[in-house]
Amino acid sequence: MNKLLNASTLAICCASPCLIQANDKMEEVIVTSSRIEMPLRQIGTAVSVVTDQEIKQQGLISLADILRTTPSVAVSRNGGPGSTTGLRIRGEEGFRTLVLIDGMDISDAAGTQVGPNFENLLSTGISRIEILRGTQGMMYGADAGGIVNIQSYLPEEGLGGEVSAEGGRYDTHQFAAALGGKSELGDFSLTAADYQTDGYNARDTDTILRDDDGYENTTLHGRVAWNATKQLRLQLTARDVDSDNDFDSCFNADFEEVDLCSNTFEQTGWRASADYKGERLSHSLSYSSTDTDREFFSEGVSSFYARGELEKYEYLGSFTASESTRFLYGADLKRESIDDGTFNQDRDQTGLYAEYHGSFSDRLFITAGGRYDDNDDFGDFTSWRASAAYLIDTSNGTVKLKSSYGTGFRAPSLYEISYNNSFFAFPPASTTTLKEEKSRGFDLGVEYYANGGMHLEAVYFDQTVKDEIFFDQADFSGYLQGRGDTDSRGVELVAELPLAESWYLSGNYTYNDTENSSGSSRIRRPEHLANLALRYHHASGKFTAQLNARGGYHAIDIDGSSLDEYEVINLSASFTLTPGLQVYGRVENLLDKDYQEVLTYNASGIAGYAGVRYSF
Description:
This protein is mainly beta. It has one domain: TonB-dependent receptor, beta-barrel domain (Maltoporin, Chain A). Helices cover 5% and strands 58% of the residues. It is built from five helices and 35 strands. β27 and β28 (479-481) form a beta hairpin. The longest helix is centred in the N-terminal third of the chain and has 9 residues, at 2-10. The two termini are 43 Å apart.
């Protein structure tokens, strides 16, 4: 840890400050915790927020790289951009995390587990991210990893937009555009991004071909909303992602390992919703559908394909009984299917939920709720959540005490079940009858909001997945299930500190102790994670700069060997030439650190990028 702190301190040269009062920060509206708008002061769960300004200041293309700067988020990537990316919140696998974009579930139903495909998520066109950490997704039917709730480009009043172009090392370039409008009748937005890079040799075991492993991604996202009446709002959202990725290590028709490998990914989705807000009653009704197609190639020949579909029908209601009492309730139906030429399966899962919200003397805020799910393959389950927040005023700010407890479950995926029942599997997997995973999590925290803008937070968390399902990495027989608890516990520390009128320092540290059901450490989960950012914002508003340092320490890989400990420093800056016209640049891995987050897979060396952005 000293390495990261020393490097970050010596490189002081960045930030974006706003001296705000404690009450301003605490009144920030959060949606993700309970699916409705709530001020931060009332929320007892652990939530992180990333704003549009912070995304642009960092300049990072991959959404996973943006998320990894927040508490308890670890990322491991099998090579360069577009390669398989594992994102873990509080040590839980990425498929246990639900990702929503404008309310649309973008889970990849064609995958081995139904979860988000983080490697194909760009940061372009995103205006806000809320991360709900841990097993607190009861109202969503989410698993132990939590929720990542993304809001796309938000238009200002009238008509506006922006266009940008950037390029840099590895023959990388991205072109992006956004257009939006807003009036009393409604609003709309449309974003587009085209990203291409030649990349670099993804794996150090590729000593013969030694080719660059490139990546291409074209993402389109649109949303239109009509305010039919003062109470009724109708919205339609659509999204399309099309990508191609080169990687190393696959098998050809003769079952020989080769390094001329590639895969394609295409996901299209749409969501229609109707929201009615009355004085005391509100209703939200929506339908969404997401189709995902994946295909893998070895030496140019197709070796595997899969198509998945995810449909959701959702209803959310709210009744405000008084100023201090509110009840939320809802129902959902999820349909998922997968077809890869060998497995062709589908199933439904229905859910009912309700949650009570109470406030007492405008100091104590409590939520308590339950959820009932019925899965076609595994029957019914009940999960629970409770949270509390208590405010204490001080002479210089406000202290918030908070705590939450939640449970959840995950039914084995269609792929996991089908694989173990197929001719691919053999003992011990073929004789293993998979059952549902169950999870529970608890956290306890304290926050301090100072009137001068300082924010401090400390959270202890402890969560467990019972009977975790995993692939047999020793004999490759199929999917096995641990008989016992897989644990993840630790501490999250967060600090935000205005240093002067133009300087701002922020950082977070996570200690995460993980253990699988056999008592061994869970793979690719650093025991220590740290992020430090120093931002500078000139009084004229024309120049900003930011230095980000991150470090990961004490992690192991599949074979039990230790992974590299590393500190990576990124530097970014932007300058406004004229109103609306901005030039920007960044240097990633400023110190050219040589490290691996996954054994034998390379990470990028030092790389510089520059671009121009015009807003209107």
